Amino acid sequence: MAHTPSNGSTSTFVSRRRFVQTTGVAGALAFAGCLGGDDDDGNGGNGSSGNGDDNGGISGTIIATGSNTVAPITDRAGETFMDEYPDASVDVDPQGTGAGFSEFTQGNSDVQSASRMISEDEIDQAEANDVDYSYYEVGTDGLAVVKHADNDWLEEITLDELKTVWEYESDVQLWSDIRDEYPDEEIHLHARDSASGTFDYFTANIIGEVGLIRDDYSATSQTNEIMDAVANNEYAFGWGGLGYLRAIEDDQPIEAVPVESDVDGEFYYPTGDNIEDGLYSPLARPLYIFLSHYSLEDRPNLIGSFARFYFNGQRDFAPQEGFYASPPDVPQENHEELTEVLEDLGVEDRVEIQPDV
Amino acid sequence: MSTKIDDELFGSADLQWEKLKNKLFLGICFTASLFGVVVLVFLLADVAYEAGIGIVEFDINIGQFLTEGGRRDPEDAGFYAAIVASVWLMALTAVMAFVVGVGSAIYLEEYAPDTRITRLIEANLANLAGVPSVVYGLLVLAAVVNGFGTGSILLAGAIALALLIVPIIIVSTQEALRAVPDGLRNGSYATGATQWQTIRQVVLPAAIPGILTGTILALARAIGETAPLIMVGILFTARRPPGPLDSFSAMPSQIYVWAAQPQPHFHHLAALGIVVLLAFMLTMNAVAVFLRNRYEREL
């Protein structure tokens, strides 16, 4: 489901970035001079690179920001890419979708992993900074609702109950506030903070509005911490990316809770089959990467080849990291979309790697 | 308590109670001094335990850990690239901070007249030494990474760390220079030596053990700093050893990235990484202590 936003013309956005790039090269040269001309590929971001990929070799540094959830997939793609093209380096910084978009929309990153769609504010910011982009689906994630293994009362949860627990100014303080037969024990809530795409996805789809969540739960940017906290407390309750649950559920006392499906009203565990069949809904979601068109135009062979490489292998990369592959026709759609973007930018013949799916 | 003995005679000296207070106070002070040690022991024990589990249960091979770069598969992952990044950082930081720090200390101690401006500079240096490290990170992010447009390169990280420790080096160098008795300087001047000759051949040789000790201790602080590196650099898996103009992920950054991974195997790699980082730090501290003891002599 790739798509280019129709707004934002590709011809006018380069001027300011060009300036930054020129000063960047000058700065890098000045530093290189100080150090006696160390001339290896000192590409520390899109500021200091730009040369060196017209001659056919795939080399340079790709800065990838974004989702803590999607980062493992992009990092896996990057590592495989680096193994094959040793002159290229893919640096994946897993700081969260929101934090990553803040860098991406300022033109500080080439590839942005996202566990949700770009928001209105972020679109505005990208426009203000003349950053043009397109996005591509690279995998599917289940969002797991988790409880401690000794919790034998919570056998399933309805979407209404989830909303009641997590909505803004929720008055659920005890487990018995959810259902009367649950224990009169305080409920300890753990979830992601607002820098996260998982947070936005959950609040939008469960509560009904992005960010409209109670303010008295333990919020963290690290899904690990949620899983650890729930595995350590019988009365804890939380949610987070399924990959993080899969990594520890065999060794730690933590379990997924079956969630009501908005498809048929039955309760489903976040298993691969349920997610791929579309039954684990609304808590299964597509994962994306965004490509900066500035970076694509600046270093078409490096960024374009990486994107091609990513799409070629995406149905392997996602499962290797505990996620689910996107539907079979998605990689091809991604390639077609990228071809269109590259043609618009006039650089399609400078990308070495071709689609092979 | 002792108040049973003489409730009515409140105010008269109660020797037992006074002695007890004496002991109590000693006990409190002793506990306070022990607190830091106990916390340190717990910390080291916890890290060693986690790292030990990693080696025993997850079969982490220490040789591979020290010679391979980071990988997505924890079984293949190592710390080598991050170690190289940190060594580069330390080398560049040491050169920059030493030149600037020792230079300004010599000026302030040996040349500068005792004016209001000198005192203002010294007061500012003392304050700079207390500025949180993340602020230096932000400064370099704005001035170097975005200002000069260098991107998140290792050299920019070294500049941030150098800025962080320059005030510490200045202060410790000043102390070392002050410890050189004026008699030595005056003796040198009496032979007709210039100020440059005096500083180079008399003052600096006498002060260098103190200067080196201060510098190494400052570097030992810098090697574990994470906040400036988060600001200046990017946190990613360090797969290949970087050069000064490459993007980098140093030891603290790599530890952070591993700790954020879903798989527990990575968490034990992070623990082993902490052991390596601590080993670096303790070695540097040991070298500083050695230098101080070896070269400290009566002047």
TrEMBL record, chain A:
Residues 58-310 form the PBP domain. It comes from Natronoglomus mannanivorans. InterPro entries: PBP_domain, Phosphate_ABC_transporter. The keyword Cell wall biogenesis/degradation does not apply. This is Substrate-binding domain-containing protein. Pfam families: PBP_like_2. The keyword Signal applies. It comes from the Archaea.
UniProtKB/TrEMBL annotation, chain B:
The keyword DNA damage does not apply. The chain crosses the membrane at residues 24-45, 79-108, 120-145, 151-171, 202-223, 269-291. Residues 83-287 form the ABC transmembrane type-1 domain. InterPro entries: MetI-like, MetI-like_sf, Phosphate_PstA. Belongs to the binding-protein-dependent transport system permease family. CysTW subfamily. Signal peptide: none annotated. Gene3D superfamilies: MetI-like. Keywords: Cell membrane, Membrane, Transmembrane, Transmembrane helix, Transport. It is a multi-pass membrane protein. This is Phosphate transport system permease protein PstA. SUPFAM superfamilies: MetI-like. It is found in: Cell membrane.
